[in-house]
User: Fold this.
Amino acid sequence: MRIIVIGSGFGGLSAAIRLRAQGHEVTVVEQRDKPGGRAYVYQQDGFTFDGGPTIITAPWLFDELFAEAGKKVADYVQIVPIDPFYQIRFEDGTVFRYNGDTTAIIEQIRKLNPDDVRGYRAFLKQSERVFGAGMSLIDKPFTTLMDMVKVLPDLIRLRADRSVAGLTNRHIRDERLRQVFSFHPLLVGGNPFETTSIYTLIHHLEKTWGVWFAMGGTGKLVEAFVRCLEDIGGELRLSTTVDQIMVDERTGKANGVRLTSGEVLPADAVVSNGDVAFTYKHLIAPKWRKKNTDARIDGLDYSMSLMVIYFGTNKQYEDIAHHEIIMGPRYKGLLDEVFGSKTLAKDFSLYLHRPTATDPSLAPPGCDAWYVLSPVPHLGGPTDWRVTSQAYRDRIMQYLEDRYLPGLSKHLVTEHRIDPLHFRDTLSSHLGSAFSVQPTLLQSAWFRPHNKSEDIPNLYFAGAGTHPGAGLPGVISSGKIVADLIGSAA
Assistant:
């Protein structure tokens, strides 16, 4: 079969490698000048900045993928463990060192609130139970209602109707510890107070298998995927934008894609790793979308967006870890504004990334490479980012200088930033959402946009907006689901 994959994010590349390994003729088309999608790499003034995902978990998924192609990950990229996984900082000066050492975690809990030790042990057991059930579904398709019916008993037993924060708060009383063990949904675009408690499996996943980093940055992992694809005969075309997914008038099946250049690429199947909402609304004529109408797509709840500031300093801040989670003065109130009223708050919580803590080669000697990320509302709210972007950037950078990076403005030597307009205009993401469809219970599994289109039988979806969701394990697994579906249909 001739298969066109739209988009070279990890989901698209995962699908492409597996499909090529099955023997199909595979071409990946990417609208930007580099592969990676949200994992784009920015290079300026001697600094290298990963544009998007930086947290690697479930490393065995890479091993499985490369083994399908008859390759080994270690032959393409070096992945190393990180300790701590995160340092979590609070306004009162408390710092929680989060890693996989249960004894060390319990000792820190005991210092903050001894009464929460027992609750944490119960939370840990629940996380393990959820992992056992939830992780087995990560690479299984939910294309029919019966697929959902089969897992309902497990979801009911595990109380998937509860949120991550709701489950955490049942076991833990200290407000800081509640945040430590419930923030993870934010890393995949979810509100901890709305995301299904199935996502508490992340705690067990990280604790058992660790958090990892690709030396040279996540961009080196993208390069590894591309080289693997090309080594087995797949093709990647950069700076190639799809204008329309073409559908045969007689069969109702996709028969190729038309590019903005006018060129037509014929195909027996099409895989979109682009934003699900954008794909349906802008690449497929409405007459072919009886199920996935504009109204249905617009009716979904989408994740927040982000402002990300990439910057380099001519000074190294050695007390800052590779991954820092900086909690602001409010937790639920802030999230209510980001996800609920979609208004830009005066305060913020931040993810501060310092990869040079692990790999100094990402910056010139004696320097640090950084990015700081702030969750912000998507473009469905009232904020005009053409007016607001600079002032919001200034507030974040001043906050970092005042509290964590003394002398930052004096040591700043290079900078670049993106905001919700970038996600909409450059990454073609509906409403400028950074993670596509929110991972709520009623937007998970069968309720999520399907990996196989209900409208066009040979159109498939990989990436954050479809099952199982955002994050590297999720999008890589979506590529496996798509390859399995096409393989069984071929």
Summary: The radius of gyration is 22 Å.
